[in-house]
Amino acid sequence: MAPNSPITSKIIVAVLVLCFIVGGFVFAISPAKNQGYAPAQPLPFSHKTHAGKYQIPCMYCHVSVEKSRHATVPAMNVCMNCHKMVKTDSPHIKKLTESYEQGKPIPWIKVHDLPEFTYFNHKRHIARGVKCQTCHGEVQNMDTVKQYAPLTMGWCVNCHRQPQYNAPTSCDTCHR
Amino acid sequence: MEQHTERKYWGSLEEYHNEPGFIEKANQEFTSSPIRDGVTEETDGTSRRDFMKLMAASTALASTACYQKPMHKILPYVNQPEEVTFGVANYYASTCGECSTGCGTLVKTREGRPIKIEGNPDHPINKGGLCARGQASILNLYDPDRLRSPSELQRGSLATSAGQWDAIDRKISDKLKAIKNGSGRVRILSSTINSPSTNKLIEEFLSGFKNGELVSYDPINLDNVIASQELSYGTKILPRYRFDEASVIVSIDGDFLGTLISPVEFTKQFSKNRKVDANHKKMAKLIVFESTMSLTGTNSDERTPIRPTDGAHVALALAYELIINLKAASADASVVEALKNYSPESVAMACGFNVSSIKKAALALSKAKGKSLVISGSPQSQTENALSLQVAVDLLNSILQNDGVTVDYNISPSLQAKGSFSEVKKLVKEMNAGSVDALFIYNSNPAYNLPQELGFLAAAKKVGLVVSFSSHIDESAVLADFICPDNHKLESWGDAQAQKGVYSLTQPTIRPIYNTRSFEDSLLAFNKMGALGIGKLVSYQDFHAYVQTNWRETVFKEVGTSVGFEIFWESALRDGVVDMVAKNSNRSKNSSARSFKSSALTSNLPKAISANGFEIALYSKVSMYDGATSNNPWLQEMPDPVSRITWDNYASVSPQAAEEMHLVLGDIVKLTIGDKTIELPAHVQPGLHNKVIAVALGYGRENAGLVGSKIGKNMFALTMSKDLPVLSGHKVALKKTGAKHLIAIVQEQSSLQGRPHVKEATLKKYQEKSNAGNEHHEKLTTVWSGHEYKGYRWAMAIDLNSCTGCGACVIGCQSENNVPVVGKENVSRGRIMHWIRVDRYYTGTPDNPQTVHQLMLCQHCENAPCETVCPVIATAHSDEGLNQQIYNRCVGTRYCANNCPYKVRRFNWFDYNYSGQTRYPMTLAQNPEVTIRSRGVMEKCTFCIQRITEVKNTAKDMSRSVKDGELKTACQQSCPADAIVFGNINDSTSLVTLAAKDPRGYHVLEELNTRPSVTYMTKIRNVEQL
Q: Which of B274, B347, B378, B944 is the most exposed place for a label (fewest CB within 10 A)?
């Protein structure tokens, strides 16, 4: 077949269209960093044990959620508050303690990952009485943290635009 | 279009002369285009059709692979410090280290690193304002070219090797020990140190040697002012000038609003006396005689161009007029006799200006005795007549009864300049004779900014041990044997006494990023390591302990409080300043006048005026100052407020001289001063004296770092070495070379086309009616019902009377909003990214125009022309009055920028932030609350939405609404002149509402029916007629 002949062009177009279809399908079905995303963490920290069984309140560890925009993963000294004595024989605790003593933080994988151009404010939502479970699901029942809500802009706006919440809907609330 | 202004405003001489092609060029929004630049399908490799095919194919392939967002990790603290709340900023009070003025700062830190430097509102010198250089100094902390460890050097080479402190200390202290046992001739060369603790430590260190001495000098110096104070009054001090007490100010080459002594303090005081409103229709008067178009000159009411050497004659003519003609003041018979040769008529004729300039100035001064101020001292004034000029200025202040009132020599004199050029001369002589064993070079760059004829480089070779404490291998460090890099001020402990009785502290806001060590700690280490036997110093663990002990023995005792030292120390650290002057209620007190020594004048008369040829006037820019921080890209890219040029220095000539020699901007000229020649691009400066060539100092650095080296030419090298520094006034010959140089100028690309941007009136007319100059308002109609603002509605007001054009707001905004630097070539294509700019407009004739500085930023229009044309609604109007810009929505059509009549929208043509231009660790200075924009996205002023949100949140936490004045935008907060007001215009009592309703308030380009949220207040000039 000669290059640039009508048949060659048709084949190129067909291949491109196939790529689009396959790509689109893969994109549509993959959970990726979206609803349902539950990556394996470097240490198998279980919220079910800590928040569920032992009923440690969310804000004992996630201290900044009332004071700042960020909820934050707790500093390791918070873990060590208990774990310098509790279950010290466990290999996971041993790894944690070793990391702590060497001054190396545990590299947790971010589950609820909003894009850099959005600025979500935890403090404001806590002040309005929004429960953690509303957006994060029943975390106290999760062994591995799973993204419960889609966290898309549409999902946020659907709540914000309800008249009873009187929440701001202008773009610069989150986009700056 | 009807012309509603009586005055014609022009931004450039091309516009003034209505040159052909100028309007056409000005109509182009984007000054470069592939079509205009001649790039076509034939000349360029890829044809448009092929390009589209390639793009489609690669998009298709890319989209099949890219379905996953990148994974992000969260690294928690191992041990979270108590005072850190992630996401909340901590502010620490400290002192600015950019120059020896000693303004108090508040350093904003996030998660343990400083991200912004602001002025401390409680500090009596700067009262919350901070100049452009102080704000830009945050970037110097994160300078990628900073040395990361001490090093042993090979003299003459730039090569370093990462050394260890112990090893280097051992080597240096061994040598020092040998010197101590020998002739012990140790010299520390530095610029003015205003820190009492550092000075004490240096004194104690040097006392351990038989012949130890501190030699300090300042490249931008005040030697003449201090020398004349000693001659005139017998007191060798630098006075504190009180502009708040002066209603008439005469400046003879004294750029006090720009770079002279304490510009933030002076701007704050001066601006306060320039503000007018319906209840207060008085303002101070500023009369300027100057040899360059300085920032002070652009803010003057009356201005007369002179040559640098004429200054002394002008001062004496003023004295003549006051004493002999007006009989408004009196002086000794010997003084009167000496003045007889300086009649206003003879001086005016010899200098080439109208005698009415002198007469008017003297008359104004005569009516403000005890409430006026005559000032000089900038590099332009440092000619061979400088001492005569300063003595004449002292005489004027004395006969006008200003001494002790606006010239404070006693209560809280300035300690901001203690350098002495004659001491440096003596040092170089000693060095040449081989009588200096060790030389420490600290906080100075003698190889760069001393006159070449002094021969510092050759002399340094004869010194046994040379140690540099610079943060880069700069021009002076190349001469050294060792380099022990000093910490940045933000990493250091210290203190400052900028004016007598005003003590401030410096505290570190971050652990030293690299393996550097503060100069003071180095001295302590040398003493310990080498067992130099300075017993007092051994007991201190570090400089922090030293400062505390010194304060315990001095400031703490002076304060005389009943609380313990620890509590006092904590409160001093928190406040940042201990103001003994205010504590003793002395700040507004006057002192009795000193008696002026007539012999000072009679034995220091100036040289006769010689009118032939050009004279050179060297000046310092607000951005570059003395060139110490040339490597700071923010400062290099900050357009000079007068010339609007970035990334260069140039030889400015008057319009008449340019016409005679056929010079345009960018023509390279050869200047010959004595036996030295230098080539510089030419620049045409309206208002310059026809016989003056003005060039800025602070350029021509060889070893500043990657950004600042080899920009412009070093004019320090050409200065003369006499007993007192002679920077200006040399005769210079100028020749056109025919070559050209690209000059990146930001303003002269657009045209006002006769529209009333600026409204102004004389003070007299304003006193008659409050809306003088602002009578005409457009009748605007609209079909829209307008936006509804149920809650807050944010608006801004800018007072053209207060703004001096210093540009602190430009850098403040850049720091707060992560505004990128684009580089010289992009600036020349009109792609500069500053969200706020200080436009400069001339009015009148090019030989001596009047100037106005107008801030221009996004006007957040009600009927925004940009909002309607965005195809993807990336720019929308918020329910609080802001015009929002949503970066992730923007696709880069640039239609909005095209439609904006104010031309305030900036487009990211390249990935300025992610490309190699923003090198690590510069990224640490970025504000985490503001998105970093990538290529292809439009950006503009957001009224600091991140600050609005933060303050609203704080108010909501306390269940109240935002108080007026609680919320400050970055530009407003940085302004030393308090020219910007921001607030809620729905609140009828807020300052911004009062400004908007003020008869002086108007909108720029009102007739376009954009309905901006920014109100400008007319400029009132204190003149008889415009």
A: B274
